Amino acid sequence: MTTIETIDKTAITVELPEAFDERWSRLPGIQVEGRRITIDPAEYFFRFESHTWLVADWDLVKAQLLDMDETTESAVEQLALDFIKAHGQSTPDAARVVTTAYEVYAYLFRDEHLAGLGLPQVTAEHLRILREAATLMALNKVELDGRISNVGPCWFFPAATSVVFDLDEETGGLLDEVYHGGWFNEHRRIESIKAHAALGGRLVHGCQSVPDQSGGVVAPYGASMATFRDDLAAFKAGWIKQVYAHRVSPAA
């Protein structure tokens, strides 16, 4: 069992059901060897102040939450919050967080959605990129008071995917909007709210659209969005620049 003491000093290692693109190793502090991912917290994170995360068992989410319907008395957000209160567990095991996140995003960005997305330029390969980046983003964290305690390069989705997958700005921006747009319809947004209960909160964003590139994070219900906005504004420009510095080739 990983402990709070060791997670700050040792590498985070996780083996996932599918292999990730080995080009993730272009970013500092992360090595990908097939299905095995190793992260050195000291190198990978810009800020790493919290060594616990809130998660819920994905199988339980599938069995008890995904098929629940909201009512006039209980909106989908309330269903998710009640589920987290009942089943959420604080864990210092970063590998468990990443494994849970992989299951969440394998579900949210599954290939069967392509036919109904209404964006023919989005491909199955793009969904794989979304799954991988979002899985790693789960290690980011926002506290209830709104302070951003953990920040890694995947906070800045277009920048990170530009480095890893050599995406041009237009494609990176498109995928960023698919990531935080809930597939641009209410059905997908509801699906996202339920699924993110496994990661202890809801997906929130510091930006209104692609041009601002302020990224997103799964934040606990009740977190101060005003503090979140101000904290993000204070550091984002410098850290985005650091991510882009690892580009192997200039974006088209």
TrEMBL record:
Domain of life per record: Bacteria
Protein's name in the database: Uncharacterized protein
Organism this protein belongs to: Streptomyces lunalinharesii
Lineage of origin: Bacteria, Bacillati, Actinomycetota, Actinomycetes, Kitasatosporales
